[in-house]
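Entry 14. Ran structure prediction on the chain below.
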Amino acid sequence: MFTHEVRVLFRKELRQILRSRSALLSALLFPFLFLLIIPGLQIIGLSAAPDGLASDLPEGVPLPPGLAAVGDDPALLLRSLLLPLFMTIGGLIVPSVMATYTMIAERENRTLELLVALPVRVGQILLAKLLVIIGLAGAVTLSIFVVDAILVLTLGIGSVGYVFTLLLLLMTTLSYSTASALLISLLARDFRTANNLTGALIAPTVFLTLGILAAVPGTFAVLVLAAIFALAAAAAVVISLRVVTFERLLR
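Output, structure tokens:
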């Protein structure tokens, strides 16, 4: 799997992304916003006023199963809905930015044509891109996730087991976003088309995430989401390996 050709292509992809300031800026901005600033403010705000959410809930209004116990546990709204939602959004956006750049920018710069002359297979090219994107996206998001985990544990929002379920959700979301974004980049001919297709994929995914978090009680909802994203990632990789050819890469 990790052959000499894949390692060489991996180093080439890594240098290419690290040289792009726009790709790195976008990859850092979104996780700081969705994985650190917004969740961090909510965690700190809840710990400062633990009864604030419960007192604002209207009486007699039925809540979905996933949020039915919010009145008894004000932290449930943050723990069962908001934090998993922001983990999902952050995991969806970061790899899609990198994947779009590594495919579309390389195609527009005509550097993909150089790969045709090399003794490599299309699957090796795709694997190297997948490894670079998920490696960089994982390094960025996991570094920020550590701060969230420390806040959750220190302020008593959740347990160690809960933190691990969030981590599992983040990793599977990163895998799904990377695989699907690469597939979209193979099908799109320019940045605009790729961004439109990515937005059309992210929006329904966010709504699906909200629906599952609201309908399924407890941390089981997070595990369900993680399983869905893992299966979707595997499907996207299989489809990419079946449809990608040198002709499609270069068109």
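The chain has a mean pLDDT of 78. Will compare against last week's run tomorrow.
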